[in-house]
Amino acid sequence: MSAEWRIEKPIGTIPNILLMEKNELNLFAGDISRAYGNVRILIHPFYRENMEPDPYDQARQYSHSNLVRDSLINCDLPSLIFEDPDSVDSTNLRVQFSSRKNCTYFVTTKHDNPTPTIPGLHITDEQAWEYLLNQLHLAGVKKCELGGRELYHLSNGRAGGCVLVAYERLCEKFNTRLIGNLCYPDNII
């Protein structure tokens, strides 16, 4: 990472892979190596939980959030949580209690968008994705399991949402598959 990319550390106890020093990246790469190149990625997994609850969908959202928390605790893979900088602290509180065998990391994103963002650094969306994909490649990532919010079907028969955008970008470099029960609101494309 060049000197102009050194930005302050994120709030919370879970590290942001976009802001890691070399020794932290080596630890991340070690986690990836122990998982044979596999990683679980969750896109905005607790999105809308801090907003006004939808009375028609509240039970389903609660059920999905519990499933996500359980998956973070019970998964043997390193986990990357893509999260809006404004939600990092609340998400950190939701997942830090976990005493898992694996490690959890953040990737900060734009608001309501899975595009990675490096706080304080102004780069294009394309540069941000390339930087993240390169970091993952250098760490030894080969396969990604992907879930999160939002993944939905559009009326024209196509799919949309943050999970789909991340899926398409991750597929550029990695073998990526959706984990149906970890996608919300729809289960699978």
Walk me through the topology.
Elements: H1 22-34, E1 38-43, H2 58-74, E2 79-83, H3 88-95, E3 104-108, H4 125-138, E4 143-153, E5 159-160, H5 162-170, E6 175-185
Parallel strand pairs: 1-2, 1-4, 2-3, 4-6
Antiparallel strand pairs: 4-5
Number of domains: 1
Q: What's the total number of strands?
A: 6
Approximately how much beta-strand content do the residues carry?
A: 15-25%
Gross geometry: globular
Rg (C-alpha, Å): 16 Å
CATH architecture: 3-Layer(aba) Sandwich
Mean pLDDT: 77
Walkthrough of the structure:
With 189 residues, the protein is an alpha/beta fold. It has a single domain, classed as Rossmann fold (3-Layer(aba) Sandwich). It contains 5 helices and 6 strands. Strands 1, 2, 3, 4, 5 and 6 form a 6-stranded mixed sheet that branches. A hairpin with a 5-residue loop joins strand 4 and strand 5 (159-160). The chain is globular and about 45 Å long. Mean pLDDT is 77; it is low at 1-12.
Could you give a short description of this structure?
By secondary structure, this protein is of the alpha/beta class. It has helices at about 20-35, 60-75, 90-95, 125-140, 160-170, and strands spanning about 40-45, 80-85, 105-110, 145-155, 160, 175-185.
